[in-house]
Amino acid sequence: MAKIMAEYIWMDGKKPTAKLRSKTKIIEGPVRELKDLPMWGFDGSSTKQAEGHFSDCMLKPVYFIPDPVRGEPNVLVMCEVLNADGTPHATNTRHHLAKLMEKYGAEEPIFGFEQEYTLYRKDWPVGWPQHGFPHPQGRYYCGVGCDEVYGRKVVETHMRDCIKAGISISGINAEVMPAQWEFQIGPLPPLEAADQLWLARWILYRHGEDFEVYAKLDPKPMAGDWNGAGGHTNFSTKAMREEGGLEVIKQTCEKLSKMHNQHMKVYGAENDLRLTGKHETCSYKEFRYGVSDRGASVRIPMDTANKGKGYLEDRRPAANLDPYQVCTALVETACGSGFDPEKYGWQNFDPEK
Ligand code: ADP
Ligand code: MN
Ligand code: MN
Ligand code: MN
């Protein structure tokens, strides 16, 4: 038995977009399974999760990975927030997805997230001229060289640490706007994919402290002729991955089109600034799907169309998506009868405005 550091991580009550919070608990290690991690608590009045007088919230460990920053045997622990009486807190979006998976687990949904983000230092994108703008877009996407891409050191450190922690990171790339990058998580079952995305974000923020940069997930960090930042969500069920899957994918796209506005409500705040119909997007006011079409709301990848099975890419979620909400929306629509964000009290964007 030796003391270890367990970093308890949770989503706060910030609206319209939750942020991450964390604190360290010293416990007896090693941690082999979830039940080796005790419940814990925090002051919800400091995280917009409680009023002053009755402010205790509980942290329930739900997923853990080796801590790549401090090194093993320390751990990073994703937590759900509970009320003092043990019921799920209103900001706990994860438990709804967990419940849904009890119902639709047999359909074996899996997800892959593309997380775009923009590196900032002192309120301006990394590498941008201090009082001006870089050369227009066109040379930065997947670029190499210090005149083309900015911030690779933190990007690379983050990627290596994700691998070290056992996160299913499937790649990285420099994006169209300078200082903008992407990493991909998955494909994995919904809860794991979403937990890993939140933990990968935490690791990125944490390394940002040492590099004195921060990752912004704003859908449109720079106004004007600069690309926005998305959270493309790749999705499939068992039926889509098997023979005849393409037909199931098309049927699912039809279902998605009927739920478009309901989905947009939980696909990220300020998504209208990004989904303009320009910069490889479809306007948030319409829904279109198509093979290999990067100007559509939902793209069926070429490889999926050719093989007649595979997955779909929902290009609508913004970089500031809550993956628990997005997975819930997609699973309920594809496997169930539709998605009603009001049922959960969720809305971070109003597409009717
Ligand atoms: P893009 O061409 O849109 O930039 P990326 O390579 O960045 O695509 O991301 C593709 C994502 O699709 C990856 O995150 C990967 O995990 C995910 N993916 C691959 N196969 C499936 C599948 N069958 N179901 C769900 N997601 C998948
Ligand atoms: Mn991508
Ligand atoms: Mn991208
Ligand atoms: Mn994509």
Explain what the structure shows.
With about 350 residues, this protein is α+β, with helices and mostly antiparallel strands. It folds into two domains: about 5-90, Glutamine synthetase, N-terminal domain (Ubiquitin-like (UB roll), Roll), CATH 3.10.20.70; about 110-345, Glutamine synthetase/guanido kinase, catalytic domain (Creatine Kinase, Chain A, domain 2, 2-Layer Sandwich), CATH 3.30.590.10. Helix content is about 25%, strand content about 25%. It has nine helices and 14 strands. Strands 6, 7, 8, 9, 10, 11, 12, 13 and 14 form a nine-stranded mixed sheet that branches. Strands 2-1-5-4-3 form a five-stranded mixed sheet, covered by helices on one side. It starts with a strand and ends in a 9-residue tail after the last helix.
What's the CATH topology label of the largest domain?
Creatine Kinase, Chain A, domain 2
- Average pLDDT number: 97
> What compounds are bound to the protein?
adenosine-5'-diphosphate, manganese (II) ion
Distance from N terminus to C terminus (CA atoms, Å) equals 57 Å
CATH homologous superfamily label of the largest domain: Glutamine synthetase/guanido kinase, catalytic domain
Number of separate domains: 2
Low-confidence stretches: none
Number of helices: 9
Structural class: alpha+beta
Which band does the percent of strand residues land in? 15-25%
Helicity, as a percent range: 25-40%
The value of Rg in angstroms is 20 Å
Counting DSSP E segments of at least 2 residues, the number of strands comes to 14
Task: Characterize the overall form.
Answer: globular
CATH class of the largest domain: Alpha Beta
User: Would you identify the CATH architecture of the largest domain?
Assistant: 2-Layer Sandwich
> Major beta sheet, specifics?
9 strands, mixed
Q: Order of SSEs, N→C?
A: EEEEEHEEHEEHEEHHHEEHEHH
